[in-house]
Specification:
429 residues, alpha/beta, Urease, subunit C, domain 1, TIM Barrel, eight-stranded mixed beta sheet, four-stranded parallel beta sheet
């Protein structure tokens, strides 16, 4: 497979295109025939074509539109070889019989590099310009993931997965104790930052409460505070996890994580399908948010997540594929699943839960970037030029109005329609 390196790719300085984007959850913005100007990877201006008299590097054809890069807020990197496996199993069995044995193999750093060199370009070809990754417990494999993202040109938050609980993890795949979990995570943060690459950053990653002792959770929260690092973990994913935390801690997952000190600005809570109104208020108060993984929730979460209630409550909300609990790496596909999940809630008696394609696309772009604290997700001056050129599906070309074209684009386009991808102004696909 050809390996594309950021430092070998061509930086764009101007591109002429029609822009489709969702700067707000309830607003589709269409800007026809614009010239986007880029300097040092950031957008410095967007002009009407008639107002731009200079050279244009790239002119997109009429049937190709420009959209912000997609942001995957929850992905398990070492589960990439597991795509599509054992999704008929309950979560605890899926983890212990399939997932943990696979992740344990990433002690082999050569294996890790081969997987990363397949996964990162594949995600870029799907238009995924930014990802919040869970790694394995292995420091070398986690650093290799950061190196792969920097090399291929993908923006990423990368976390070494901490897990030390003797009952919530297998003996052959866990940290030796809370001190080891914290110290290894600290070394991983230092190693990723030592790469000194603007595209990659560390993120503190306790797997979830069932997999971590109280001491590890407290220590990881202190590590995040001391190093100024954001946090990601699972929260109230399904009946099994939700019930475990209630029994062990006597409170909901959100409250427990807050007491441990892990509910911080931009903390990414994966799934969160069992949130109460009080949980939503607490998460919003802490400026944290949810990685909504609508497809994997079908398999493992026992219920649908109400993106509408979360957004209305002031939570940050992005979309996640949850590879490999979600078998599709496409965030465009997740947009369709998010709309379907909201319809399920409507059918169950919650008419206010409905979202449309505009809201789903916002979660996949602007909402996800805001959740991760990334200055992207919208094509406007001052932000990174992380963008995707997508050919309109044939069905969309029959529509005269842009809202209909947009809906068909989101629902029907896939990797084969993606023509080019830029990250930080450099073309990586």
């Amino acid at each position: 497979m050809r390996r594309v390196r950021v430092r070998e790719s061509v930086a764009v300085t101007s591109i002429r295109a029609t822009i489709l984007q969702t700067p707000a959850a309830d607003r589709l913005e269409v800007s026809t025939d614009r010239v986007v100007r880029v300097e040092a990877g950031r957008i410095v201006g967007i002009d009407a074509t008639g107002d731009h008299g200079g050279h244009v590097d790239v002119t997109l054809p009429d049937d190709v539109v420009l959209v912000p890069g997609f942001v995957d807020t929850h992905l398990h990197a070492p589960q990439w070889p597991q795509l599509g496996t054992a999704l008929d199993q309950p979560l605890d069995r899926w983890l212990f019989e399939y997932t943990f044995p696979l992740e344990a193999r990433f002690v082999d750093t050569d294996l890790a590099r081969r997987v990363w060199d397949d996964m990162v370009p594949s995600l870029l070809r799907h238009g995924t310009t930014s990802v919040a990754y869970y790694g394995s417990i292995h420091e070398d494999a986690t650093l290799a993931l950061a190196e792969a993202c920097a090399s291929h040109g993908q923006r990423a938050l990368i976390g070494r997965c901490a897990m030390d609980h003797p009952e919530g993890t297998p003996e052959w795949y866990r940290d030796g104790g809370p001190r080891e979990a914290v110290d290894a995570s600290g070394r991983s943060i230092e190693a990723i930052r030592a790469l000194d690459d603007a595209l990659v950053a560390p993120i503190v990653t306790p797997r979830f409460v069932p997999a971590c002792t109280d001491a590890a959770l407290l220590g990881l929260a202190e590590l995040a505070a001391e190093t100024g690092t954001t946090v990601q973990t699972h929260c109230s994913e399904g009946d099994w996890e939700h019930g475990h935390v209630l029994e062990r801690c006597g409170v909901t997952d959100s409250v427990a994580l807050d007491r441990f000190g892990l509910l911080r600005p931009n903390t990414v809570l994966a799934h969160a399908t069992h949130l109460s109104d009080d949980d939503r208020s607490l998460i919003a108060e802490r400026s944290a948010g949810v990685a909504h993984c609508p497809l994997s929730n079908v398999y493992f979460a026992d219920r649908a997540f109400s993106a509408r209630r979360a957004i209305d409550a002031g939570l940050r909300v992005g979309l996640g594929t949850d590879v490999a609990g979600g078998p599709s790496p496409s965030l465009l596909a997740q947009c369709g699943h998010a709309v379907a999940a909201s319809q399920r809630l409507v059918d169950e008696g919650d008419p206010a839960a409905r979202i449309d394609t505009t809201t789903a696309f916002w979660m996949a772009t602007a909402g996800g970037a805001d959740l991760l604290g990334i200055d992207a997700g919208v094509l406007e001056p001052g932000r990174w030029f992380d963008a995707v050129a997508i050919r309109l599906p044939a069905a969309a070309q029959w529509d005269d109005d842009w809202p209909s074209r947009f809906e068909r684009l989101v629902r029907l386009a896939g990797a084969s329609e993606i023509e080019r991808v830029w990250v930080g102004g450099r073309q990586v696909v």
